[in-house]
Design brief:
The structure holds 2 protein chains of 2 kinds. By secondary structure, chain A is an alpha+beta fold. Chain A is 26% helix and 38% strand. The chains are: A alpha+beta, B mainly beta. Chain B: This is Late endosomal/lysosomal adaptor and MAPK and MTOR activator 4.
Chain lengths: 90, 97
C-alpha cells in the first residue's frame, strides 16, 4: 500500500544535498520518514505548516523554509498531507 | 525598511510579539504578528537530532505564489518583511534561496 509513497521518498532522497525527508498526515502522524528526519518531529512540522496557512487562509498553502547556517528544512502542505525535506546548503 | 526592494509591508516585533514598528500592508497587523511569534516558538522544537540545539534557525521564509514573507531575528527583535516575487522569477510555489 505504501509502495508509491516509498518510491517518492526514495526519489527525494536521491536528490543532491537532501539528507532527510518526512511525510505526515493532518493529525501530525508520521506516514514515512527517512534519513536525518526523525519520526517525532512530524507533529511539530504539521503544526508549523498549519500556523503558516493561517497568515492567508484564502490562498493555497505556502512553502515554509527554515534555515540555519548550513541546513534548510522545507515544509509544504498538499491537501491533508504535509511533507518536509531536510537539505544541506549547497 | 522602506528601502528593501519589492517590499510591500513590514513588521518589527519584540521577542514576545509586541509590534514596535510596522508599515505597508502589515501596518498594525497584530494578527500576523501573533501567528509569526507562534511560528518561531514552534520552529525551536523541530528535530533536535537533525538540527543540534546550538544550531538555531537564522531565517524563516513563507512563500506564496506571488509574494513571500521573510522572518529574521536580530538584536532580540523579530523582523518580518512581506515582499512580492517579480513575475519572471516566480515559478509556482518554489522557494527562492
Amino acid at each position: 500500500m505504501e509502495k508509491d509513497l516509498d518510491k517518492v521518498i526514495e526519489e527525494i532522497m536521491s536528490t543532491p544535498n537532501v539528507n532527510g525527508c518526512l511525510v505526515a498526515d493532518h493529525q501530525g502522524l508520521c506516514l514515512a520518514s527517512k534519513g536525518s528526519a526523525h519520526v517525532d518531529s512530524a507533529g511539530v512540522i504539521v503544526a508549523i505548516s498549519e500556523q503558516a496557512c493561517k497568515i492567508q487562509p484564502n490562498l493555497k498553502p505556502p512553502t515554509v523554509c527554515l534555515e540555519t547556517d548550513k541546513k534548510q528544512c522545507l515544509i509544504q502542505r498538499h491537501g491533508t498531507i504535509t511533507g518536509a525535506i531536510y537539505k544541506q546548503k549547497a | 525598511m522602506d528601502k528593501i526592494p519589492d517590499q510591500i509591508g513590514y513588521l518589527v516585533l519584540t521577542e514576545d510579539g509586541a509590534v514596535l514598528e510596522s508599515g505597508g500592508e502589515l501596518e498594525n497587523d497584530e494578527r500576523v504578528a501573533t501567528i509569526i511569534t507562534d511560528l518561531i516558538t514552534l520552529s525551536n522544537k523541530v528535530d533536535p537530532t537533525a538540527f543540534a540545539p546550538n544550531e538555531q534557525f537564522k531565517k524563516i521564509t513563507i512563500t506564496y505564489d506571488d509574494h513571500w514573507f521573510v522572518i529574521c531575528l536580530s538584536n532580540k527583535k523579530i523582523y518580518v518583511v512581506k515582499r512580492t516575487i517579480p513575475i519572471s522569477a516566480g515559478e509556482g510555489n518554489t522557494v527562492n534561496v
